[in-house]
């Protein structure tokens, strides 16, 4: 092979190598992370966008693009909640840290229902509290990107089609309503991070709730509960569990598996001293609040 042909072959191979290298999504992902470290958020957004264009299910790229968009807004002095869409995609493609970050950043701008209806695709947080509502209306099917709903202090008995209409909800406040029954469909809200069901009339929680692996904050205060699902220990992300003012005498043995549980509130339950002692043994790193007998 003569020199010119060798040279052409080398250049062809280099070109092929360069094409392959530049089409590696992780290359752009790492460039984006470096840009964040340098506080060059626009360049970071560009790099993460390139990574996504090559691999559209690259969850980590969506996550860091969302973070970059938020940091850029903070730096420039404006708020644009569009970054929530990237966090949603990151969750959808399995990047678990996106749930907590969306909980932290995605609920700062909440709309009343009428305002939310003007731009339903950007209604990430809706407040319908204290409006004498007895049913979550089918109108919520418009809000496919909803991540936070405050429906507290109403007369709600049923959640209607919410389970199927709003799959990305991470924060749901249903405190102070007239709910006596929770459907097993609750498990469809698989990204739930916070659930407030305080001051209702719930007698049993469906065992399916234990499938909610992202749940960190669960408030069941002031209901009629006598027991909890036996597989409670499967909820590994739980940090706060408020069971105060119920009728619980014993907790399931699996509670010992809640290694991330920081606070357990048991005040106002007929729990024996022996059960409290067991809980202290099983949950040595958990603050347990109970009535002194």
Strand content: 5-15%
Neighbour order of strands in the largest sheet: 1-2-3-4-5-6-7-8
- Shape type: globular
What is the terminal separation in angstroms?
A: 94 Å
Structural class: alpha/beta
Output the number of helix runs: 9
Q: Number of DSSP strands?
A: 8
Largest sheet: 8 strands, parallel
The sequence of SSEs as H and E is HHHHHHHEEHEEEEEHE
The Cα radius of gyration reads: 24 Å
Unreliable segments (pLDDT under 50, ≥5 consecutive)? Answer: 3-20
Structure, explained:
The chain is α/β, with parallel strands linked by helices. Helix content is 35%, strand content 8%. The chain has an eight-stranded parallel sheet, covered by helices on one side. The termini are far apart. The model is unreliable at 3-20 (pLDDT under 50).
Topology (SSEs and partners):
Elements: H1 3-22, H2 25-37, H3 41-54, H4 59-76, H5 83-92, H6 97-105, H7 113-116, E1 125-127, E2 148-150, H8 162-165, E3 171-173, E4 194-196, E5 217-219, E6 240-242, E7 263-265, H9 273-282, E8 287-289
Parallel strand pairs: 1-2, 2-3, 3-4, 4-5, 5-6, 6-7, 7-8
List its traits:
disordered N terminus, 293 residues, 8 strands
Task: Give a concise summary.
This protein has helices at residues 3-22, 25-37, 41-54, 59-76, 83-92, 97-105, 113-116, 162-165, 273-282; strands at 125-127, 148-150, 171-173, 194-196, 217-219, 240-242, 263-265, 287-289. The chain is an alpha/beta fold.
């Amino acid at each position: 092979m003569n020199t010119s042909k060798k040279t052409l072959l080398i250049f062809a191979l280099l070109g092929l190598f360069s094409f392959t290298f530049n089409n590696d999504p992780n290359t752009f992902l790492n460039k984006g992370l470096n840009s964040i470290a340098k506080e060059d958020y626009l360049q970071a957004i560009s790099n993460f966008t390139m990574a996504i264009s090559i691999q559209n299910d690259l969850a980590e790229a969506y996550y860091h693009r969302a973070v970059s968009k938020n940091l850029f807004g903070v730096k420039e002095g404006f708020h644009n909640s569009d970054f929530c869409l990237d966090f949603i995609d990151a969750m959808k493609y399995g990047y678990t840290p996106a749930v907590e970050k969306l909980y932290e950043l995605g609920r700062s701008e909440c709309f009343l229902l009428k305002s939310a209806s003007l731009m339903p695709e950007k209604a990430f947080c809706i407040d319908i509290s204290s409006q004498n509502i007895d049913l979550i209306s089918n109108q919520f099917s418009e809000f496919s990107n909803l991540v936070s709903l405050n429906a507290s202090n109403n007369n709600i008995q049923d959640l209607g089609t919410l389970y199927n209409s709003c799959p990305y909800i991470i924060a749901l406040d249903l405190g102070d309503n007239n709910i006596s029954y929770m459907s097993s469909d609750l498990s469809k809200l698989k990204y739930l991070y916070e659930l407030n069901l305080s001051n209702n009339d719930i007698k049993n929680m469906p065992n399916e709730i234990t499938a909610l692996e992202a749940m960190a904050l669960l408030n069941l205060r002031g209901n009629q509960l006598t027991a909890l699902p036996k597989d409670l220990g499967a909820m590994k992300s739980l940090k706060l569990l408020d069971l105060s003012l119920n009728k619980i005498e014993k907790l399931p043995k699996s509670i010992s598996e809640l290694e991330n549980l920081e606070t357990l509130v048991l005040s106002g339950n007929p729990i024996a001293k022996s059960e409290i002692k067991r809980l202290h043994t099983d949950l040595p790193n958990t603050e347990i609040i109970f009535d002194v007998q």
